[in-house]
Amino acid sequence: MNLAEYLFMFLVFPGLLFSGAAGLVIGWVDRKVTAMLQWRVGPPWYQNFLDTAKLLLYKETLIPKGIARGYFLGMPLLALSAATLASTVLLSANGSTRAGFLGDVIVVVYLLMMPPIALMLGAFSSANTLATVGASREIKLMLSYELPFLLALSVPIVKSGYALKLGDIINYQAANGAVIGSPSGVLSFLAMIFCIQAKLGFVPFDMPEAETELMAGVYIEYSGKALGFFKLAKSIMIFALPVLIVTLYCGGVGSGGVVDIMKGALEYIAIVFIMILIKNTNPRVRIDHAMKFFWGPVAFLAALSCVLAVMGY
Q1: Which of 19, 82, 148, 152 has the CB geometry, 3.0–4.6 Å to 87, for a possible disulfide?
Q2: Which domain holds residue 115?
Q3: Rounded Cα gap, residues 236 and 175, in angstroms
Q4: What are 69-127's pLDDT values in tens digits?
Q5: How many domains does the structure of the chain reveal?
Q6: pLDDT, tens digit, for every residue of 149-162?
Q7: CB distance 64 to 127 below 8 Å
């Protein structure tokens, strides 16, 4: 592939343009379902597109005095770039199992860590007290869910013969059945769902933002294009993380034909529904309770799934 093809993949399909649009649609589904559960009408399907366009094209980017300007403006770009690249690698591997590369699982995990880290650094650089509180919560939350996330992630890797390539994990499931069909896969899937919920900052793990307590917390000093980049990065994460779960536990979105694609789409919708259901049926928890939850029950669940996977179950 030449440079133009790589740029097209990153900027158009399956990268920034496609993943961003898909994430904004998933975000609308979340808002619409939430509104229905609260007996409201909810926004039209294009509302998230209008909100994003308003931030990127019309709203002024205000920069507080006396801050680390480079960090403050650079972190939204870092978050958006990392989220876009992670989505590109994931969708490329699902489109063709030969499109990936050895170790792309590790690369995706690394890239998915970057948006929360960028958000923390950006909030700290803003020199705002409420943003600092939100960033400190983000650090604690990230340190809490990353361990069970990595343990849960190791189950599909172990069961596929210690494969470190997304395409190999997909091929294993095509030949031997979905990972979620095994006892270790079920336990790992449950742990992964909770970790993804926290990685996205969804209720009950939205403590870093906590609008009713911190007035948006980590985002409080951001506006205009900088805020738009952060919001777009989160939209891409909302789209990409369920794709990761489908890839690891259900055999991918399917590249073998229309039936496989439809099956993968239904699995994707089911995972999104589970995430929205958790979000709308639980109150926000305290950060110390979240840490105990991830280092206790969720870590135990993920570790048990690893043991069962090594034993062949």
Answers
A1: 19
A2: 3-310
A3: 30
A4: 888 999 999 999 999 999 999 999 888 767 788 899 999 999 999 999 999 999 999 88
A5: 1
A6: 999 999 999 999 99
A7: yes
pTM of the model: 0.94
CA distances from 263 to 122, 165, 267 (A): 39, 22, 6
Which of 113, 121, 133 shows the shortest CA–CA distance to 75?
Answer: 121
Q: Is 237 helix (H, G, I), strand (E, B) or coil?
A: helix
| Structure-derived torsion over alpha carbons of residues 186, 187, 192, 198, reported in degrees to the nearest 10 | 130
CA distance 296 to 298: 6
Location of structure tokens 């094209």 = 57
Which residue is listed with tokens 């205000």? Answer: 62
The conformation of residue 180, written as its DSSP 8-state character, comes to G
Cis peptide before 242 (omega within 30 of 0): no
Q: Which residue has tokens 């069961």? A: 159
- Please check whether residue 150 is in contact with residue 109, taking contact to mean a CB–CB distance below 8 angstroms: yes
